[in-house]
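Regression test attached.
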Amino acid sequence: MPIIAELPVLPAALLSKLAGLNQRQRQAVTHPDGPLLVVAGPGTGKTQLLAARVAFLLTQPDVRPQEILCLTYTDAAARNMRHRLLGFVGPEAHRVAIHTFHSLGQLIIQENGGVLGRHDLEPATDLETDEVLREVLDGLPAGHQLRRDVGDAYYDLRHLKQLFQTMKREGWAPAELLLALEEYRLELPSDAAYLYKNPPPAMRAQGMRPGDVIPHKLAEEEAHIERSVAAVGLFEAYQAGLAARRRFDYGDMLAWATHLLEENQGLRLSYQERFQHFLVDEYQDTNGAQSRLLYLLADYWSNPSLLVVGDDDQSIFRFQGASVANVFEFTRRYPQAATVVLEENYRSSAPVLATAESLIVRNQERLVGQLPGLNKQLLARHARFAASPELPRLCRYATPLHEAADVAAQLAALHHGGQWPMGRVGVITRNHDQMDQLAQLLRAAGVPFQRRRTVDVLAEPLATALHRVLRYVDASLRPDDQLAADAALFELLHLAALAVPPADLLRLALGHQSHRRQMHAAGQPVLAWRAWAGVALDDFGPTPPEQPALSTEGRQALICVLALVDGWVQAAATLPLPTLLEHIVLETLLPAQLAQAAQPGQVLAEARALLHWGRAEARRQAEAGVSDLLHTWEVLAATREGLPLEQGGEVSAALELLTAHSAKGLEWEHVWVLGCQQTAWRRKAADRGFRLPPVLAPATGDAADCEEARRLFFVALTRAQVQLTVCWAAHDEAGKELVPCEFVAELEQDGLVAADVVVSPSVLDTARRTQLAPPPPPAPVPDSVLLDELLLDFRLSATVLNSYLACPLACYYEQILRVPTAHNEELLFGSAIHLALEEFFRQAQQPAAAFGPAEELVELFRRHFSRARFELPGRVYQRLAHAGPELLRDWWAQAQACTRPTAVVEYRVRAELPGGPRLVGMLDRLDLHDDGRTCDVLDYKTGSPATASEKLARPSLVPLQLP
DNA sequence: TGAGGCGCACTTTTT
DNA sequence: GTGCGCCTCA
């Protein structure tokens, strides 16, 4: 069909561009007004097509660039589109409206803040939404379903976040969702999954018959629903929290924009007039909210100029709400829509396409078969690659290590053999962590590569060093927390960046210990660490007897470092926060990190990200100081993402390592798909979020999961241009058999032959050696004279013994050297409970020999725990101050029934170990039996509030013969 | 068939 | 901390 001949006269430049398109592409580009669905398989030139379509529209009379709206899913795609368009139409491209769905929503909201009653609305950062959620959780009343007094108080934070985003995305009002949950709950008893088919004998004995409800199963699901109901109930509080900060989140960007347009006809008309032509990229990735916004704008016309491009076979973001159903919905909504299928592939060889094709035809959920007359078979059209006869390879390795070692060796050979870059190479895995081994081996072999992965900057060494500095600075600015300052200083002095010889730090610690002992003996106040260090380093004045024998370099280093640290503390009080951070990072921490970094570029990027974050925080909160930053740090660290930074690598590397999801849209001459085991590609992850009614949840079930995974595998395969290698391991490192994923089996069914790859011992050996971490530096040992003196009157208590068994080095520092340690919440909470119980029993042994009322016990706890008020963050203190009394009241109720008030409290024991040290210790409580000869020995074990409840409820009873 | 115990993981990504 | 798969037992 000679389409171009029928067209109005087109500019010569565009004509030549159109001539480069194939017949189907031209058909789409020159389609007259009206909806058009372009089904664009991999490598069929869809971005090119979109750009050409815009160029074509611009040649039409009465079409102005600003009336054309291009919608993409990601920022990167939007940039890419603008770039392409510049090539096609020149500077006019800047006037075309190119948006992501979210930026369009944001535009509509910000242009119409007045309608929403606010002019100053800003998008919320991830951090801000997390803070709002934390406030919501903090504000829960006692006894609320989602309140956690013990354990992680913010456990449900990310589940809430996910729930609220889903609600906004799907347009569920809280009331609607509650109704759906209630309906679901009412229907449970008639759901076959909750009925006995054949009750077990024990249940039969209780009169259960087939068809009766399984009580515990029903109750369990109802409890889940209850939690969901409670969570939905927090939606309004979350929205109110955002509003109080004048913020809207990602979900609101779409939901509010849609709502504005729906409710306000005048507004809708103005946008409908503004945009007259619509083009949507990656249509299979759009979700419900995005489609609604699009249709609201396009529905002004009965026959809108609306072009959507997508590929049902590459829909891989179902977990974000994307659905192939959106593509079906398009054809239902516009029955008159034309459909163009792009089949000519300009990327891959015929064998690669045939392999991918044979795999994907197994999917049922495809447009093929649903749209009449639709045919979709990829045809190899690449000038050079199409005719390549090379078949994809299937490689079976013994273990993942064999696989990584062999691939790394092959890549290294290519690189070092000067065949690099012979063409770009991509290595694809399902999950990030499957790539770790290979990345490590490549780094060791000196092969440059790029890896796309976001890492948490806050968990990297540069940030942890900064964190230590800030903790000390913060603590030393708060005079009520000397212990925390001491502990932070001791840790800080060990930073490699400060280069203090470790042996001298030990000598300093020993010196402080002997100072403490002498001052105790003399009944005089003990110097804190910073003051002590000052005395110890003082060259002038009389040398105190406890002054440690520091090395000359050590003394010099310590003097410099303390001056530096003091300088930071002073600067914190005077300089703005971003400047302080720059001082600390740029002058001290960064140079030290750079000197030993394997990837200096990465460390620089981390430094940039950290400083940028500091500036952003200072802007967000005008008076923000170090302690505010540390608080934010804590919030960020508690969320899964932390402070994300794209981990790059060498920018120009010809080798890229990525996950199948992030490989979408990219291509390489040679592609390796690694780790094709069933466990990686078809794992069923535990759903830990809130239960949704099944009618609202996206289609699940094994068939749908399988097809989603097959589409992802299809995406991975179709990245390859010439060489495609699919690998898996037969066993894991422990020797357990691994099942290759079903798609591998399908490829074998379709005629590919798997080969067992034997990796040479030397290659394996190198890989194993690379894997071993470098040995830790030897721990410094103080001179034996000092050590002997230290251990002169050493007694082995149960605490010390436990500590030693857990970690000898930690025991040496904490128990022998007694370096300062800050009190953590477990310790403070545990000892308050412990002391309260101890005193309570002592009081019970007064002549009356009876327990006091529960409130007496609670009062004891309150008195002891109040010491912790200044040592814990306010919220943690509040939470534990509430949890303690609850715990003790519970215990008291039980103890009334089964415990005697006559117990022996704090029983001291000693044991002489033959030839060894004396073991001393204290038994918390002995409950004497009636026979007067035996008793129960109790140890409270109150350390962690999470487990204290259980341990108090069920003490382990050990009968003991008293002598 | 189902109850109960135990071991074992704990994606993918964008705005 | 939580839920799933797998096992055994009745």
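Expected vs. actual: identical. The two ends of chain A are 107 Å apart (CA to CA).
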